[in-house]
Automatic annotation (TrEMBL):
Organism: Lactococcus protaetiae
Pfam families (alphabetical): AAA_15
Residues covered by the Endonuclease GajA/Old nuclease/RecF-like AAA domain: 4-309
Protein name, as recorded: Nuclease SbcCD subunit C
Assembly with partners or alone: Heterodimer of SbcC and SbcD.
Family: Belongs to the SMC family. SbcC subfamily.
Coiled coil: 209-309
Signal peptide extent: none
Domain of life according to the entry: Bacteria
Keyword Coiled coil: yes
Length: 427
């Protein structure tokens, strides 16, 4: 059952001389008046009556009054709350006859309902924690946000590393004409030596051929005497000439050039291998980054689903990165009217038994927004008692010099007392 304020009577508290009010059960009761007339004093009086001495004004008794403060509230559950006498002691009268006191009031009076600025002035993170406490997903959301932060930090590091490696790879020189593998100078020298040895052997064979020719000429001059020897030499010469025809001298010029350029070639090969490795490293880091991004996206989806499934006190409310959001806007980007609506909705949800809330300085709402806010309060079956610097028709009661003045919206209002130090009510 939601508990609301049915009646209130206040005398000699701060700027209030005498006010009696019956707030509307559902919707908005606006206490109007010019500045300094006692509007806020009424809200402070209600907070003191219900919240205990920690809400007692530092100068509770009205200046100039010889009579002590007098507070009398009647709640919808039948409780009567009184503070009167010299010490303004609390008296809670339970119609059922049970003992009652501040402890009973604390069980259903939500602190933020009588001290809304405490919630509105809290940090955005604390507001978000309050909302998460209400909907019961704080621990799970905190766990998801921690996972998201860890992955986000890791992804940031990986992304920077990938960018650095990619830039490093782009700045490196590449030689497309260079071979894929390093050149071995010793192997080239061995090939050179092999060719030189073969050339030497070919030279020996050629020298042998020349020698045989010379000998042939010599033998021709002695043919008669050396006919038998000539026949042998002719045979040898024939064999030698056949061998000489098959010989081919390979050039070492290319190998000599490769040996000379081996270090330069190897430098280019190493440069190409380093560039290939750098590009591979950059690609590996990019794949890590993409994988972390996918994990972060999944966690964010889980967070959104967690909040969508929760019983939020107001459509459009959410929490992101530990901060309260309404319609996608952070607290400092909300209008004053939106801040009040969000605060009221959250406070309403904190303690469902507390059916009322006190709101000061409602002049930040224009009349259309005020009407819309009042309709929302009625829809939520929530009672709001608010002050507004105004004397217009939207006010339920006008406070002037500490007294209540009748408006078209109220039938029971106080008139000034006959004597300055005593207060009499007219009903």
């Amino acid at each position: 059952m939601m508990i609301k304020i049915n009646k209130l009577e206040i005398e000699n508290v701060k700027r209030v001389k005498a006010v009696k009010l019956e707030p509307t059960p559902n919707g908005l009761t606006v206490i109007g008046g010019r500045n300094g007339q006692g509007k806020t004093s009424i809200l402070d009086s209600i907070a003191w009556a219900l919240g205990g001495n920690k809400y007692k004004p530092s100068q509770a008794q009205r200046e100039g009054s010889v009579l002590p403060p007098n507070l009398h509230l009647v709640l919808s559950n039948g409780l009567e709350i009184k503070r009167d006498g010299k010490n303004s002691d609390l008296k809670v009268i339970d119609p059922s006859g049970n003992k009652a006191g501040q402890k009973l009031l604390d069980s259903f009076v939500e602190e933020f309902a009588i001290n809304l600025p405490k919630f509105m002035d809290a940090s955005n993170a604390d507001k978000a924690k309050t909302l998460l406490q209400i909907i019961g997903v704080g621990d799970k959301l905190f766990e998801l946000e921690q996972q998201e932060k860890k992955l986000y930090d890791e992804r940031t590091y990986v992304g920077r590393t990938a960018d650095q490696k990619k830039k490093f790879a782009l700045e490196m020189i590449y030689y497309p004409e260079a071979p894929k593998e390093l050149v071995s100078a010793s192997e080239l020298i061995q090939q050179q030596q092999s060719i030189l040895a073969k050339k030497a052997e070919n030279g020996r064979i050629r020298a042998q051929k020349d020698s045989l020719k010379q000998r042939q000429a010599h033998l021709d001059s002695e043919i008669a005497r050396l006919i038998e020897e000539k026949a042998k030499i002719d045979q040898q010469l024939e064999t030698a000439e056949k061998s000489a025809l098959q010989l081919h001298d390979e050039s070492t010029e290319e190998l000599e050039r490769d040996i000379t350029n081996a270090e330069e070639i190897n430098r280019k090969v190493r440069a190409n291998l380093d560039k290939d490795k750098a590009e591979q490293d950059a690609q590996v880091e990019k794949e890590k980054y993409d994988n972390l991004s996918a994990q972060i996206d999944r966690i964010r989806l889980d967070k959104n689903q967690l909040l969508e499934d929760a019983d939020l006190p107001l459509p459009g409310l959410s929490v992101a990165e530990g901060e309260l959001l309404y319609k996608g806007q952070r607290w400092d980007n909300m209008s004053g009217a939106e801040q009040l609506k969000v605060s009221t909705a959250i406070v309403r949800k904190l303690n469902p038994e507390c059916g009322f809330i006190l709101i000061d300085k409602l002049e930040q709402m224009d009349l259309d927004t005020l009407k819309e806010f009042g309709q929302w309060l009625e829809q939520e079956q929530l009672q709001a008692i608010a002050t507004r610097v105004s004397t217009g028709d939207e006010c339920s009661i006008i406070i002037s010099d500490g007294y209540g003045e009748e408006t078209e919206q109220t039938a029971v209002i106080e008139t000034p007392p006959v004597q300055p130090e005593q207060t009499k009510y007219q009903f």
